[in-house]
UniProtKB/TrEMBL annotation:
Gene3D superfamilies: Galactose-binding domain-like, Glycosidases, Immunoglobulins. It comes from Arthrobacter saudimassiliensis. This is Beta-glucuronidase. The gene is uidA. GO terms for biological process: carbohydrate metabolic process. Belongs to the glycosyl hydrolase 2 family. Residues 1-25, 149-178 are annotated as: Disordered. It holds the Pfam family Glyco_hydro_2. Keywords: Glycosidase, Hydrolase.
Length: 628
């Protein structure tokens, strides 16, 4: 197939962590910090790959090596190829299990694979998954024990048995370890599947489409009865936690799970939890979680022969009135101003995949050091380690759901002015949502996202829709979120096409003055400026593309950018906070491809404006909220 490949960026960019990447130790940290057990094997590193027609069998010859978990479009993958909708991407490697690794069951985990995949182990169909942003697990115990050779549901002809050059191998079946094969399809933005801001024809606010494995792949071994999930919910009274243990494989003879909670290494609570039934544990002298004091309690849970380690933060979210009767966001029962940044989670060398765990933490740490207390994770679900860093460093998270729909998936109104009447999002055709199957897939993904992140202390707000992209029945989505998770707030329609639901009147304002209108100030919902700013500055030597994009005038110097940032906040945002504005989300943390409106350059090497000036602005915002 002779598909045109995208033109290379100008000039190529890399992050400090990408430049220091060790291909033999790619993202080696445990990928699931809230459910850690001994007995796991990281499968990141070099795999074989090939690209075929979508309907082709597994290739006899492989195109080369790909560095997992970087997608083939990412420079760090070593491939540099855009997968097309009529193609299939194949992966293969052999895995040797360390001596003594196996217990009764072996689980194969994928952090995320974009968009749809099928997995074979030793030629046996192990399972598959649809959706490019959520983790999934396959029990491969039987497949590991299977003899190599033709079998029902086996993968098509696998080619030469000895074709493993450069791929990790070891003892096991067929004399080369256990063979794992993954087949991926990605139709990107040519259908209604959820894909975030990826687009095959990237540019402006749309970014390079990526495909395939983009989060850690790993094996885990468990006993016959094993702990599948922990749900950790702080009590509204802020003096207890509810622990629910979900298990697979039947109950052990003793039945209950032993739960121990520790604070700074000292046991503070213990109890016995029946799997599936909530256990409330009272916490003496409770220490609350907040961005100023991100204290985390440690949890150990044992069920039969299985033991896992986790953590939680003791905090509550909600809305309530301040002394003047205006609706505010609450943290631990008190008004708390969310001073946020839009965070796209893209990297020039890894695309969706950060080049290292420290790179993930560095973005959060930089935002904290500048005085921000919240990141709005924009139309992307991150690896669980990103949320772990928000938990331990003290950063609130507004979590966007991932959008779908056809074309751009939004009603044809370019930039609605604040307060202008919104379109009804039950007009599915206007929003690119006529596909009933696509709408149902979104609802299922919304539920799975909540299930994945519901125990994360830092996640404060769910955002089901952004600017009408793939929006439909947003009021119903808000109600669904309320049923699934009544402990957090909902911004049901961020920026455009407000359906009157959720906890927030949510506004996006670029390149025009902003003020809190009088009729909004004492409403039942908090007023939030969920996107604004976007002031742009390209830094020579640190831009992704010769053609840059920004809102309004493109500035020339760091001093100009600093002055514009300070003036915007002094003249508009600080007065708005005094008038009842409950949260701010400045666009944005970093440049992303053509967009040059970040505080940091895309390669994270340059902070583009004066750090002390930014810290002074965020301090004034906090004072304005405290005084209003």
């Amino acid at each position: 197939m002779d598909h045109a490949q995208p033109k290379p960026a100008h000039p190529p960019l890399s992050t400090p962590w990408g430049e220091a990447l060790d291909p033999d130790a790619v993202l080696p940290e445990h990928p699931r910090p809230q459910l850690v057990r001994e007995g796991w094997l990281n499968l990141n590193g070099p795999w074989q790959y090939a690209v075929t027609a979508a309907d082709a069998d597994q290739p006899h010859a492989w195109d080369g090596q790909i560095l997992v978990p970087f997608s083939p479009e990412a420079p760090l993958s070593g491939v540099g190829r855009q997968l097309q909708p009529d193609e299939a991407l194949w992966y293969r490697r052999r895995v040797c299990l360390p001596e003594g690794f196996r217990r009764e069951r072996v689980l194969l985990h994928f952090g995320a694979v974009d968009q749809s995949c099928t997995v074979w182990v030793n030629g046996v169909l192990a399972g598959g998954h649809d959706g490019g942003y959520l983790p999934f697990t396959l029990d491969v115990t039987a497949a590991l024990d299977a003899a190599r050779g033709p079998a029902r549901d086996s993968v098509p002809d696998r080619g030469a048995a000895g074709d493993t050059e450069g791929v990790p191998a070891g003892g096991g079946p067929a004399g080369g370890g256990h063979e794992m094969v993954v087949r991926v399809r990605d139709i990107s933005d040519t259908g209604s599947a959820s894909r975030g801001k990826q687009k095959l024809e990237r540019g402006g606010i749309w970014y390079t489409a990526q495909s395939g494995i983009w989060q850690t792949v790993w094996l885990e071994t468990v006993p016959r009865t094993w702990i599948r999930e922990l749900v950790l919910t702080p009590a509204p009274t802020l003096d207890a936690v509810t622990v629910t243990v979900h298990a697979d494989g039947g109950l052990p003879p003793e039945g209950d799970a032993a739960v121990v909670v520790r604070a700074d290494g000292t046991e503070v609570a213990r109890g016995a939890a029946r799997p599936g039934a909530p256990l409330r544990l009272q916490l003496p002298q409770p220490r609350l979680w907040s961005p100023e004091d991100p204290f985390l309690y440690d949890v150990e849970v044992s069920l039969g022969e299985d033991t896992v380690h986790s953590y939680f933060g003791l905090r509550t979210f909600g809305t309530g009135k301040d002394g003047a009767g205006r609706r505010r966001l609450l943290l631990n029962g008190q008004p708390y101003l969310h001073i946020g940044l839009l965070d796209q989670g893209y990297w020039p060398d890894g695309l969706y995949t950060a080049p290292s765990d420290e790179a993930l933490a560095s973005d959060i740490r930089t935002a904290r050091e500048l005085g921000f207390t919240m990141l709005r994770k924009h139309i992307k679900i991150e690896p669980m380690r990103w949320y772990h860093h928000c938990d331990r460093l003290g950063m609130l998270v507004w979590q966007d759901m991932v959008n779908g729909g056809v074309v751009d998936g939004r009603a044809p109104e370019r930039l609605p002015l604040p307060g202008r009447g919104s379109r009804s999002d039950r007009r599915y055709r206007k929003f690119g949502r006529e596909d009933a199957a696509g709408r149902e897939a979104y609802r299922a993904e919304l539920q799975a996202t909540v299930r994945l992140l519901r125990s994360v202390p830092s996640v404060a707000v769910w955002v089901p829709f952004n600017e009408g992209w793939g929006q439909f029945d947003a009021a119903d989505a808000a109600a669904q979120l309320r049923r699934l998770d009544p402990t957090r707030c909902v911004d049901h329609a961020s920026g455009w096409h407000d359906q009157g639901a959720g906890d927030m009147k949510s506004l996006h304002v670029y390149d025009r003055p902003f003020r809190v209108r009088r009729r909004w100030r004492w409403g039942r919902r908090a007023v939030v400026l969920s996107e604004y700013g976007g002031v742009s500055l390209p830094v020579p030597g640190h831009v992704f593309n010769a053609e840059t994009f920004g809102y309004g005038k493109i500035l020339r110097t760091s001093d100009e950018l600093t002055e514009a940032f300070v003036r915007l906040h002094e003249e508009q945002i600080v007065p708005a906070v005094r008038q009842g504005l409950a949260a701010t989300v400045y666009t944005q943390l970093t440049d992303v491809e053509d967009e040059v409106n970040g505080l940091l350059t895309y390669d994270r090497k340059v902070l583009k404006l004066d750090a002390d000036a930014v810290r002074a602005v965020t301090a004034v915002l906090r004072r304005a909220a405290a005084e209003s």
